[in-house]
Amino acid sequence: MWGPSGELTQVRCPSVFCMKLVPLVAGKIGYHDGMVPGHCPFIGTRVVDDAADFDPDHLSKIRSKREA
Fold it and tell me: Over the stretch 38-53, which tens digit does the pLDDT of each residue have?
């Protein structure tokens, strides 16, 4: 999720035991509890926002090359 000024404020935790949006603090996954007791091992993992580098037509270009 993006904040009002466009900064990334929440991300989905990659753990299958969390499966929810978690806070992003200084570019890292913030404190949260997963569905199992204890702290998530992904707390503190650095997050890179690559949305600006993603070409939305990338998959369609690959498909068209396969069909050619």
Answer: 788 899 999 987 766 6
- Residue 48 to residues 28, 31, 40: CA-CA distances in angstroms? 9, 18, 19
Q: What is the pTM of this model?
A: 0.65
- Residues 6 or more apart whose CB falls under 8 angstroms from that of 35 comprise 17, 18, 19
What distance in Å separates the CA atoms of residue 33 and residue 30, rounded to the nearest whole number?
10
Q: Are 11 and 37 in contact, with CB atoms under 8 Å apart? A: no
Annotated domain spans of the chain? 10-67
